[in-house]
Amino acid sequence: MAATDEDNYKEAIDASFKLFAPQGISSDLQQIINDSCAEVGSSSSDFWVMVAALKDFLCLSAYRKARLGAPGIRKCLRCKVQEFIANEGGGEVPLEGSIPDMTSSTEHYVNLQKIYQAKSEADYLVLEERVRNILKKIGRDPHSIPKATIKSFSKNARKLKVCRYRSIEDEYNNPSPAELHKYLTDEDYSIAVGFYILLRAVDRYAANFNHFPGQFDGGLDEDISRLKTTAVSLLNDLGCSGLTLTEDLINEMCRFGAAELHAVAAIIGGIASQEVIKLITKQFVPMTGTFAFNAIDHKSQLLNLC
């Protein structure tokens, strides 16, 4: 038993850093709760109805803290949360109910697991009740959202994230000059966004000259000059007039001559397949932004061009 206790203490020491992690809800979850879509109506999706219920679930902590604060703070917060006073969430995100593996006797581990599972079930029941109440309030069938869906939402509430994307057409037709300017003038991102702009410039080049730059031997210098002119024109169209791309990037784009290196293609294909799996299985968080892989520097980056 002494050896088991020592192992348990060692595990506790190794995991002690987790106590210093930021407390409270994540910034992603805070953004979701503050999203305008959380003000639900009859046409709101099931997800946002559950978010509204979660927001209700969390509000009691503000009220409880207000009771301990100054009179002015109490009055201000009480006005904001008075309709949520009756809730039972305690200001905490619903508990997942699972615990990690650890050195322990079976009896102690099972007893601890039951405590977490009981709290998770209690949180789920509170959240379910609030979902039903909100559905009734907005004129929908209170049981239109299945229990299994609410339970899954409750279990994963701590890790929620909303990913919003633009279509490629919208990205092309409605550029974001501010974001492009920020990346072009940032030393850490200038190469990644430079290749992004050059890939678009290459498409325009091919449409104008019926071949890709550097595709044929003997005309490399002319292709470099044409691509540079095309890139400058594209930058102007994107609202980034006055900014330029380095000669090295333009030369490299022409040098590779629209080749498709099997090693790079395999990496990109693998990354794309993983993203597809995330979307199909609805597990893990997909990338948000434009992914740029620079095989020359062995570096990948995400560009937020919304």
Furnish the topology, listing elements before pairings:
Blueprint: H1 2-14, H2 27-34, H3 46-58, H4 60-68, H5 71-81, H6 106-137, H7 147-155, H8 168-173, H9 177-184, H10 190-209, H11 220-237, H12 247-255, H13 262-281, E1 290-294, E2 299-303
Antiparallel strand pairs: 1-2
Helix pairs in contact: 3-6, 4-5, 6-7, 10-11, 11-12
GO molecular function: ubiquitin-like modifier activating enzyme activity
Organism: Gossypium raimondii (Peruvian cotton)
Keywords: Ubl conjugation pathway
Which term fits the overall shape?
elongated
The proportion of strand residues reads under 5%
Q: How confident overall, as mean pLDDT?
A: 85
Separation of the first and last Cα atoms: 58 Å
Widest β-sheet, arrangement of strands: 1-2
Radius of gyration: 27 Å
Biggest beta sheet attributes: 2 strands, antiparallel
Number of strands: 2
Low-confidence stretches: 61-65, 68-86
Structural class: mainly alpha
- The assembly state of the depicted protein chains is single chain
Can you count the helices? 13
Query: Could you estimate the helical fraction of the residues in percent?
Result: 55-70%
Order of helices and strands: HHHHHHHHHHHHHEE
Write down the domain tally. 2
